[in-house]
Amino acid sequence: MRLITVGLTPHRQEFLVPTWELMRCHEVIILEEPPDPYFPKVIKGEISIETYLEKIESGFPEYTRLNLEFLQKLYKEGKSICQVEPYLERWLIIREMLDSGVPREEVEKIRELSEVYQSEHETFGKLLDYYAAMQGPFDSLVQKIKDFARADAKRLALRDKMRAKEIISLIRRLPNKTIYVEAGYIHLKLIYYLAKVKKNLFCLKVENLLLKALKARGFNGVLPSPGDGLTSYYLFGGKHRNISEDLLAARSIVYIKLIEKEELSPTPEEPFPHLKNELFWRLFVWQLSYEECKTLDKFIRLLTTQKAREMAQRLFPDAYKKAASRLADKVAL
What we know:
CATH architecture of the largest domain: 3-Layer(aba) Sandwich
Mean pLDDT: 92
Shape: globular
Number of domains: 3
Low-confidence stretches: none
Largest sheet: 5 strands, parallel
Oligomer: single chain
Strand order of the largest sheet: 3-2-4-1-5
Radius of gyration: 21 Å
Order of helices and strands: EHEHHHEHHHHEHEHHHHHHH
Structural class: alpha/beta
Helix content: 55-70%
């Protein structure tokens, strides 16, 4: 029975090498991207990577550039590479229609687009509510981020269901081909939907590169960010964690202020710079109670990332020292 491997990974430079190792072992690579008309041209070398980056306006240009260079090599080796993300593909169509002046009511009536439109409309509305609440009290902000996480969980489930359906269709059209499926590490429902229909069609293997990186550095099991934990809480019905959603929400609010936002490049000295940074602040906020998060938010909400970190260390020195100690004991990055 042929092998279908799903690689769950953060889309960051530090996870490219293990991702490439998995890709190279398969005949077909399915990327987690909506189809782009210029993608086949850049993979074949008909247009430059720089030209492609300008066209797509990548948020992480160095990650995208390095990955494209490797994908070009795979193409020359005879690998088939395609982009499959039907949810985002439909959302791009919706945006183009709206930008061209098509009334929202008309877009919403189109059967192939309505479900995605409604999902994005609801999720974006909750996100705007969250931003508006940043001018108000912490308790209101907690409620708004929970509302957003619920909507985001529904959106993730829809994305994964749609993508699984299209991947299964592609698998049926590619008999006897080993296939690698790229997926962000939070797309766990994709595994669920693929597993439901695999039967005798294929052998499904899951490679969680984030968990592997954590285990290699002494952390057994997942250490999720509070925001991912909150989204997963709703994604799986709120039954898999013995922790209150209010506390997850409170920790996620302060955590997002403390982590590094810029794209970091790995070095021999620090091969996992993002993971190191995020692990430290996860260990830090995981020690804070709801009221402590509330206190910290009061002082850091309007600060820059660096100033927020300095304030966090000043207000909660014990939590800061414990996070640093545990990271030093468990991780050699």
